[in-house]
Design goal:
Layout: H1 2-19, E1 32-33, H2 35-45, H3 47-68, E2 73-82, E3 88-93, E4 96-101, E5 106-119, H4 121-188, H5 194-229, E6 238-239, H6 261-281, E7 287-300, E8 313-326, H7 334-400, H8 406-440
């Protein structure tokens, strides 16, 4: 009987040792993806980023279009016509009526016209507006990229935390499986009760069920990340192994709203509206342009092209140079109404800027508060993990000497697993708060090049 007690005691020590072994799942040989690489791929692949880049390129062509208005406009026109019936006119000369034909059966003309704007406010304002339009699309592209960065970073850390939770459950499953095997051996040798084996099997089944849920959760989270990265969903990815380090220093300091892309976009939009108002006012100013024309005309009884005077076709040229001045006098008040409408658009945008500033200030305050709470929660969950580990170690020690039951031992393992998962979730809450705070401070680009 004494021998059986000694053997059972040794087996209990073996069970406790099994719980102290932590092993993680092997990492696949797939290429690991860092957050910076994920963001880089997203900015290259996502449709939103590509469309924003196309708008910038389109703005370049708008600048070329505006420049064209200040350059000479040259056109060439030509044509040939045949008159089967030529109009006749009657001219009285010295009391005698004479009938003359007005023209020739064949007529041809080739002319070149040049127009050069010398003074046109609309052209010069349009050129300035085109340059501002390009700057607007560049800023809008930056705003689009920032949203992509937020989506990618949030999805990235969601996968990261889900994988950490999965590792915790895998460790718990392996430890519980080892204990189950030891208890089964004890039951087979009549040294343990079958109910202890049943309890361990129930524990193992529950862990396996939660593990499968997390495996699915990791896969879904990875699919979301791949979508935000703009890569095929079937592409295998593995995250770079890197720990999350809280940065409480981000809370310190003040923000400058002028650094926010949202404000920059609105101010550039204000600049465009002011140009629109000036362009409308330009309709009140006179315009001056130079026009030059040169033409070559042929008339005769035969098809003019490739024929000259010897074949009955006469060719002659003509040229003219003129100055056109257009002075608006009265437009019925239409221009004034358009100017007033443009001014209202400016005032309306001013309201949007003020409201956006208030909203961004609110976002910053909320992000800072959320991050402070997240930091407190991280420390609390970290202390809780340390306490759960201590409780588990004490319970294992007590179990070795018969001072704790198997139920107590399994409960402490559950508590430690839950504490580690809560800590991982607290890290996720922190990273989400950190991303929002960096966005509120206009510092998201540092995620690309930390």
């Amino acid at each position: 009987m004494k021998r059986k007690r000694i053997t059972a005691k040794k087996l209990k020590i073996g069970i406790a040792a099994a719980f102290m072994i932590f092993s993680f799942s092997s990492v696949s040989a797939q290429q690991q993806v860092s957050l910076q690489e994920a963001i880089k791929q997203a900015l290259q692949n996502k449709a939103e980023a590509k469309k924003a880049a196309l708008q910038v390129k389109k703005a370049e062509y708008k600048i070329d279009e505006a420049k064209a208005g200040a350059l000479p406009q040259i056109s060439v026109a030509g044509g040939v016509s045949y008159n089967p019936i030529i109009q006749e006119t009657v001219v009285e000369i010295m009391g005698q009526r004479n009938i003359f034909k007005m023209g020739q059966p064949w007529n041809s003309s080739i002319s070149a016209t040049l127009n050069q704007a010398l003074f046109d406010q609309r052209v010069f304002i349009g050129l300035k507006a085109a340059k501002s339009t390009r700057e607007f699309y560049v800023l809008n592209s930056q705003l689009t990229n920032e949203q992509i960065i937020v989506n990618v970073a949030t999805a990235y850390y969601n996968v990261f935390v889900q994988e950490e939770n999965l590792k915790t459950l895998e460790t718990s499953y392996k430890n519980t499986e080892k204990v189950r095997n030891i208890i089964k051996s004890l039951v087979d040798n009549g040294l343990a009760k079958p109910i202890d084996l049943d309890r361990t099997n129930v524990q193992l089944t529950n862990i396996a069920s939660n593990k499968q849920k997390l495996i699915n959760g990791v896969e879904l989270a990875k699919n979301s990340l791949k979508f935000y990265m703009g890569v095929p969903i079937d592409s295998p990815i593995e995250l770079e192994e890197k720990s999350i380090e809280p940065r409480p220093e981000l809370i310190a300091g003040q923000i400058n709203l002028d650094n926010r892309s949202e404000i920059k976009v609105l101010r550039k939009q204000m600049e465009l509206l002011q140009f629109n108002k000036k362009a409308t006012e330009a309709f009140l100013y006179p315009t001056v342009s130079l026009q030059a024309n040169y033409g070559w005309y042929g008339m005769g009884t035969k098809f003019p092209w490739f024929n000259g005077i010897n074949n009955g076709v006469n060719w002659s040229d003509a040229a003219s140079i003129g100055l056109n001045v257009n002075i608006p006098i009265f437009t019925g008040g239409a221009t004034k109404s358009k100017i007033q409408q443009a001014e209202i658009d400016i005032q309306d945008l001013n309201q949007d800027i003020e409201n956006t500033q208030l909203s961004l200030n609110l976002d910053y305050k909320n992000a800072a508060t959320n991050m402070e709470n997240a930091l407190i929660n991280i420390q609390s969950m970290k202390d809780n993990v340390a306490l759960a580990e201590k409780v588990q170690a004490n319970t294992q020690s007590n179990y070795q000497y018969g001072l704790a039951t198997l139920t107590d031992l399994l409960d402490t393992d559950n508590s430690l697993t839950e504490a580690k998962q809560n800590y991982a979730n607290a890290l996720l809450d922190y990273k989400q708060a950190e991303i929002q705070l960096m966005k509120a401070r206009g510092e998201l680009n540092t995620l690309q090049n930390p």
